[in-house]
Amino acid sequence: MAVPKRKVSPSRRNMRRAHDALGANSYVEDKDTGELKRPHHIDLKTGTYRGRQVITPKED
């Protein structure tokens, strides 16, 4: 069974966790509608992906 030889200090523990934070979501402006959307995602309002009609648009 693995047992630590020395105590990990809070400073070293926090330095190890420095890269674990989540980054902010990125958004791009849609060329047709001008609305912000996530890249590489289907636009649910129009039902298009990369200029092609993929699904039928949602009815409100």
UniProtKB/TrEMBL annotation:
What's an example Gene Ontology biological process for this entry? translation
SUPFAM superfamilies of this UniProt entry? Zn-binding ribosomal proteins (SSF57829)
Q: Where is this region: Disordered?
A: 1-36
Q: Where is the composition biased (Basic residues)?
A: 1-16
Q: Does the record bear Endoplasmic reticulum in its keywords?
A: no
Q: Which Gene3D superfamilies would you find in this protein's record? A: Single helix bin (1.20.5.640)
- One family name in Pfam for this protein: Ribosomal_L32p
Q: Which keywords label this protein?
A: Ribonucleoprotein, Ribosomal protein
Regarding protein family, the annotation reads: Belongs to the bacterial ribosomal protein bL32 family.
PANTHER family, alphabetically? 50S RIBOSOMAL PROTEIN L32, LARGE RIBOSOMAL SUBUNIT PROTEIN BL32
Q: Indicate what this protein is called per its UniProt record.
A: Large ribosomal subunit protein bL32
This protein's species is Brevundimonas bullata
